[in-house]
Amino acid sequence: xxxxxxxxxxxxxxxxxxxxxxxxxxxxxxxxxxxxxxxxxxxxxxxxxxxxxxxxxxxxxxxxxxxxxxxxxxxxxxxxxxxxxxxxxxxxxxxxxxxxxxxxxxxxxxxxxxxxxxxxxxxxxxxxxxxxxxxxxxxxxxxxxxxxxxxxxxxxxxxxxxxxxxxxxxxxxxxxxxxxxxxxxxxxxxx
Length: 191
What we know:
- This protein is of the alpha/beta class.
- The chain has helices spanning 42-48, 74-84, 86-95, 101-107, 119-131, 135-149, 153-168, 171-182; strands at residues 3-6, 9-15, 33-37, 39-41, 53-57, 61-63, 99-100, 112-114.
- The protein has a five-stranded mixed β-sheet, sandwiched between helices. A three-stranded mixed β-sheet has the order 4-6-7.
- The longest helix is centred in the C-terminal third of the chain and has 16 residues, at 153-168.
- The model is unreliable at 1-28 (pLDDT under 50).
């Protein structure tokens, strides 16, 4: 992964099945962004949503496969319907289908796309834009923006953590994770 910190701007690379790397996406840090490439799934999606702006390589792919392995993408129940709408969010979260960078852009999940060979350059350019702003104004502006757009996100995130605690105690969660590790199809219980 790549991390650059310039006058309060954070940027880096995120991608690969295990979410590759993170980008200086500390909460409260003004102007965080990610360059995304490869397959972004599960935890990679969770890391990506912590950033303020996302630049996706045109060959990146995205998905929420948690239910395939006995988990729930619960944290995404909080924000995704607000971004893409209830019905599209349900589709993405409950089917686990993979979608490309073009669709992610159309859905509003990424800020911009760039050719794969240029995605880091575009992310660095974006970091330079952030770095050229007043750090004090970026911090104040981001705090105000976060308050204005929170819409109960923190409460929803806390509910997601409670839900995941329950999920981790289910037989289907254990079966899904065991099946994933063994590279076999899970055999789900009845409830």
